[in-house]
Amino acid sequence: MKKVMTAMLAGTVLTAAAQAESLVVYFSKTGEQYAVGTITEGNTAKIAKIIAEQTGSDVFEIVPEKPYPEGYRATTDAAKTELSQKARPSFKGKIENFDQYDTIYLGYPNWWGDMPMVVYTFLETYSFKGKTIRPFCTHEGSGASGTKQKIAAVCKGAIVQDVLAVRGSVAQNDSAAPKKPCATG
Ligand SMILES: Cc1cc2nc3c(=O)[nH]c(=O)nc-3n(C[C@H](O)[C@H](O)[C@H](O)COP(=O)(O)O)c2cc1C
């Protein structure tokens, strides 16, 4: 039942308040994951949920049209191919009222020292001019891998703040995770 609900909500903005000024946008993957086994809620999703609750933000999950494999190794292979091809995988849904948001909390896992390519697709779909982007990422040792600069290069005219980088295993298992950024972030 939970899966059906998730599928129905994919690509829609979950509204927190009548006119929220901030939006949490994130990509995160369930299934077999490094260091945490098989998970039903992704590591980055856990952080996204906490930030949304604490800030009263609306939420948009970036859900790729073509799902990634369930297995960890197969996912790393698929991601490596996408990275080398500079792929721009499509994602489900769209945000009608993107102009309404001043602040975007942008969440993603570190994939091969970069953001997943579907996050680039998202960033290239909307104008971030005049907006503040507050990135957060989960990882298993690499920290943010210079993704602040990569976001700034794509999102012209945006103010990009430092990345909150949290270990995926901490994010998965500790509800105080956003207060525990990793030193390498
Ligand atoms: C395709 C892929 C590539 C990854 N590459 C890295 C990496 O280069 N450095 C790192 O620290 N962690 C890497 N990881 C680990 C993830 O960043 C980490 O498990 C993250 O918390 C996953 O978040 P999610 O559950 O929200 O998808 C990789 C994981 C996957 C699936």
Compact overview of the structure:
Residues 1-20 form the signal peptide. The chain has six helices and eight strands, in the order αβββαβαβαβαββα. By secondary structure, the chain is α/β, with parallel strands linked by helices.
Task: Describe the fold and architecture.
The protein starts with a helix and ends in a 12-residue tail after the last helix. 31% of the residues lie in helices and 19% in strands. The model is unreliable at 1-7 (pLDDT under 50). It has a single domain, classed as Flavodoxin domain (Rossmann fold). It is an alpha/beta fold. The strands form two sheets. Strands 1, 4, 5, 6, 7 and 8 form a six-stranded parallel β-sheet that branches. Strands 2-3 form a two-stranded antiparallel sheet. 39% of the residues are buried. It is built from six helices and eight strands. The protein has helices at 2-9, 43-55, 72-84, 117-125, 147-154, 168-173, and strands at residues 22-26, 31-33, 37-39, 58-61, 103-109, 132-139, 159-160, 164-167. Helix 4 links the parallel strand 5 and strand 6. The chain binds flavin mononucleotide.
